[in-house]
């Protein structure tokens, strides 16, 4: 599946949630964007968000 929607490549570290855009740079942090096709929130990976939350929680402890 092809998509023109892009997502901030550094959203996991720069933002609390994915920042989507149609441009080549993030509107929030001006960083690079990646095609969102390999989606951070893939329907095939329903627990990805939980894994990321768990990891972030560990990192902050
Ligand atoms: Zn960003």
From TrEMBL:
SUPFAM superfamilies: Nop10-like SnoRNP. Keywords: Ribonucleoprotein, Ribosome biogenesis, rRNA processing. Involved in ribosome biogenesis; more specifically in 18S rRNA pseudouridylation and in cleavage of pre-rRNA. Pfam families: Nop10p. Residues 29-61 are annotated as: Disordered. Residues 52-61 have a biased composition (Basic residues). Belongs to the NOP10 family. This is Ribosome biogenesis protein Nop10. GO terms for biological process: rRNA processing. The lineage of its organism: Archaea, Methanobacteriati, Methanobacteriota, Stenosarchaea group, Halobacteria. One of its GO terms (cellular component) is ribonucleoprotein complex. InterPro entries: H/ACA_rnp_Nop10, H/ACA_rnp_Nop10_sf, Nop10_arc-typ.
């Amino acid at each position: 599946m092809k998509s023109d929607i892009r997502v901030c490549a550094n959203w996991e570290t720069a933002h609390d949630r994915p920042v989507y855009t149609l441009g080549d740079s993030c509107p929030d942090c001006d960083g690079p964007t990646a095609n969102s096709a390999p989606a951070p929130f893939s329907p095939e990976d329903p627990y990805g968000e939980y894994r990321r939350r768990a990891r972030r929680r560990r990192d902050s402890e």
